[in-house]
């Protein structure tokens, strides 16, 4: 297995360590030499140091015709603590937003009036389920009848089953849409609010 290369973050840490350990002021040429000894190829030192300058981890000043750089461990700790605080605040804001959004969705579902169309569909579904269950009970009895009569009943049964499965699929699609748009909701909450049986499934 080949030797794993040094990542950009590791290069940053190594260059920072040079500043912190030596506590001196350097120009770019000196940093390229020291970086090479620390395992950071000289061609990438400029890019790495520039990223540290951009993040205010390293200071730079122009003295005469040259640019000189240095870094203080105390400032590095301050910057890290500041970033940590910012991340904590960001996480807390996200949690608060999620809680607020979830509460709003729950309130909307709770306060939403019963839709006559939805009630009609649910009633239709219950009726179809009842019919299919009755049809399943009669199926064994019908086997003793003539083949033509039995085939006719099976055809009606199949059509009834397809109708139920179509409505069931529509309900599942609607639930999936609600869940994808409202991460705070659970399938059980939707079932409870819309009076959907927990064991609802295709026949």
Automatic annotation (TrEMBL):
The organism's place on the tree of life at top rank: Eukaryota
Residue ranges occupied by any Leucine zipper with capping helix domain in the UniProt entry: 160-203
Keywords, alphabetical: Coiled coil, Nucleus
UniProt cross-references to InterPro entries, sorted A to Z: LZ3wCH, Mnd1, Mnd1_HTH
GO molecular function: double-stranded DNA binding
Similarity comment: family membership: Belongs to the MND1 family.
Keyword Protein transport: no
Function comment: Required for proper homologous chromosome pairing and efficient cross-over and intragenic recombination during meiosis.
Pfam families, per database record: LZ3wCH, Mnd1
Organism of provenance: Stentor coeruleus
Name under which the protein is recorded: Mnd1 HTH domain-containing protein
GO biological process, one term: reciprocal meiotic recombination
Cellular component, GO annotation: nucleus
Mnd1 HTH domain location: 15-73
Coiled-coil annotated spans: 84-111
Subcellular location: Nucleus
Keyword match Nucleus: yes
């Amino acid at each position: 297995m080949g030797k794993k290369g040094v990542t950009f973050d590791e290069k940053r840490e190594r260059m920072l360590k040079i500043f912190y350990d030596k506590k001196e002021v350097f120009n770019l040429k000196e940093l390229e030499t020291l970086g090479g000894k620390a395992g950071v190829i000289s061609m990438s030192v400029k890019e790495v140091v520039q990223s540290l300058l951009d993040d205010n981890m390293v200071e730079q000043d122009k003295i005469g015709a040259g640019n000189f750089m240095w870094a203080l461990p105390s400032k590095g700790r301050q910057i890290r603590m500041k970033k940590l605080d910012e991340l904590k605040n960001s996480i807390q804001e996200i949690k608060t937003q999620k809680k607020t959004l979830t509460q709003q969705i729950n309130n909307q579902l709770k306060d939403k009036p019963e839709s006559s169309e939805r009630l009609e569909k649910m009633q239709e579904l219950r009726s179809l389920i009842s019919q299919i269950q009755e049809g399943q009970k009669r199926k064994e009895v019908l086997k003793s009848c003539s083949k033509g009569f039995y085939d006719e009943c099976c055809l009606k049964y199949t059509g009834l089953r397809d109708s139920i499965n179509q409505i069931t699929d529509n309900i599942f699609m609607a639930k999936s849409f609600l869940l994808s748009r409202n991460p705070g909701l659970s399938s059980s909450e939707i079932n409870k609010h819309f009076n959907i049986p927990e064991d609802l499934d295709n026949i």
